[in-house]
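Hi, here's the filled form for the chain we discussed.

Project: internal
Contact: R.S.
Residues: 197
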Amino acid sequence: QEIERLVVKNEVAQAIDLLKVLEVMQGASFWSIQLRIALEGAQGGLEAQKKYTAEVRSIYKNGLLNFIAYNTSVRNEERVSIQKFMGDIKQRISAHSKYDDSVKSYMRHRLMGEWPSENDEISDVLRVEQSHSLADVYETFVGLVQHCLTCEDNAELVSIIKLALQKLDCITDYRIAKACIALGLPARTVSLRRSSG
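And the returned structure, exactly as it came back:
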């Protein structure tokens, strides 16, 4: 919330500093790295974005984080249209020889915002995400809850999500509160106070 508040106030450098503190405390996550790439681009332009992406890729030389960081940076470049990016990344993921189908489903979700239509493939996305940071697990859960709101014909998924939401009694996330209302569940009380700054 604090990072969001700083970005809205156009205090991007302070948002980056706070993100750095969070990474020191909790470790790097896909969420933090993808957000930092975007913030570096907003603050320092393409060169700052590319510099940070190169730093990340030099630390994480192999694996998903390297692939995600590089392609997130490409997606954020002004010269790359969303249509071109979606076509290119879909092809790159499909052609990747080291990823099995479950990881490819996860990568399409992570980089394209695409949820699979089959429940077993949704399970694959959640299983792959379990290997990552708690921030990534939580954001993927919220994304699935929001996706579920568009899947009224998938009664099994809707039922599971409703059950999961009923078990959340200490989460004060406005996205969860809105989903509860949309699914006919008791709404969580979420304060959306106006900031004084």
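Let me know if anything looks off before we file it.
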